[in-house]
Structures are given as structure tokens and as C-alpha cells.
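Render this sequence as a predicted structure.
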Amino acid sequence: MKIVLMEPLGIGKNVLEVLSDKLTEQGHSFTAYDSFTTDVQELILRADDADVLMIANHPLPGEVIRADRNLKFVSVAFVGIDHVDVDACREKGVCISNTGGYCNDAVAELAVGLALDCLRNITLCNAAVQKGKGKGSLAGHELAGKTVGIIGTGAIGCRTAEIFKAFRCRLIGYSRSPRPEAEALGIERMSLDDVMRNADIISVHTPLTPETKGLIGKKEIRLMKNGAILINTARGPVVDTQALSEALKDGRICAGVDVYEQDPPLPAGHPLLGVPNLVCTPHVGFDTRESIDRRAAMAFENVSAWMAGAPVRVML
């Protein structure tokens, strides 16, 4: 079979060779591109007649999927598949597997880190010291004893809750259906509105779907306690950016944000640029040395498992 890695996976050349050798030794063709592109025509050329496409987090448009006459399987080295034209895959009967689970620890740890930064003013304290100043009015708050609301109690949400629990936090959460793992952690399931009202810290962990786009809007943000913290390491469009910006400017809440409508650099005039009470990171939640190696191994495992007739982590 012809297998094409459409973009780099962030791993070393030696690691890529070890993973791909397992495929070529079985007689399969393997081609890897060391740059990413969003140009549709270039993507069509790269995918030409491939049986299997491997991608990370850059778009795989329907034009590319439909143009590839032999395409049967897509291995996505990412958790979400909202950047893949699923309808086109469905039309052609193309199977999709993701690498769900590769960054559970990475994202959860960043979510907790952003919360700690907001509580203890770590970024602001660093800036004060660098400017030759003292602590001034930068006394913070403790995480212990806070009520943490988990929006989306899937694998990453539960891992985040597990870490917050170690800080002796009370756990509440919102999900569309009960989850045994969440119950086992002691997460008290509530309506979305009740979580927004009661939590000192709200950590968002839902996938981006038509149902979750704008899930945290102006109404939900207005329900938050004064001084509460909103953390988003999930997907940018799950939270209404303009409503968040207004609340931050008003000084009602604080926030830690890793995800946006598009990855940074953000365009001039973006609602979150220059606003107070905000700690930002440039979509690095998933990006640790350990997690990137893990997802590459899982992406290749997806291909081998599918070819063996026992696909894993199937999304479509």
C-alpha cells in the first residue's frame, strides 16, 4: 500500500525511520513530507493515489480526500478530527483513527498550571522582578479548598480533575451523560449553569462540535462568581471570545487560555490581545517532548492495526 505522511509530526529523523521501517519492511511504500501546507493543490499532489494518509493538526479538505482515488484510511496524529472533512470521508467510505489519549497528562498539567498562574500571579510577579520591583499588591490565592468545575468529563477532563483533587479541591462537573470515571473521582454532576455559578475555577475540556461551539457564551460567563477563573485548553470556539474579553476588561473574572479560533500569532485587533486578567499560551497544551513521541507511535500503530484488519481508536 502507498502510505503518505502529509506533514511533519515533530519527531526526530531517527525516530521517524524506526517507525516507518516497520511498514516498508512489509513491502509498503512510505513517503514523508517535512513541511506543512494549506494549499489545496499541493495537498492533492502529496496525496496522489495514496491508500493511507497520515496528518497531524492541519486541515485535510474534502477536495483532497475526493481527489485521492485510492484513499481508504486516515490516521490523525491528534485528538480532535474537526480539521478533517468527515463528510467527504464518509462519502468515500474512508476510515479515520485518531491518537486520543496521547496528551492527557500534557493538557491536564497545563490547565492546572494556568490556574495556578492566575491564582498566584506568577507571570505578573516575574514581570515585577524583571522590572526591578517588589511584590507590591501581587498577593495571590491558594488552590487548596477551591471548587473546580470541569466542563467535559472525558479522559482529559478527568485527568485534570484528578490533579486538582490532589490539591484538595472540591470537584463539580458538566457533561451530557454520566461517566463512571467522573463519578469515581467524586465529581458532582450538575447542569452547565450550576457549574458556572458555583465554581471558583472552571476548566473547559469539551471537543469542538456544532453543539459545543459557543457553549460558554455571554450568559454563562455572566453566571460566574466575581474573581472566578476560566481555563480553556480545549478548543477556542467553545468559548465566546468577545464575551470573555469583555468580562476580563471589566475585572469580573480571570482567565488562562491556550486555544483560539486560529493558532497564534493572533491577528492585530484580536479581542484577547492586550486585555488584563489573562494568561495566554500559544496552543502548547498538547506539546511536550513525551506527548509528541507518544502520538507519533500511536499514529503509526493506527496504520498497522488498520492494515491488519483490527483498527484501533476509530472515529469514523
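Summary. The radius of gyration is 21 Å. The longest strand covers residues 147-151.
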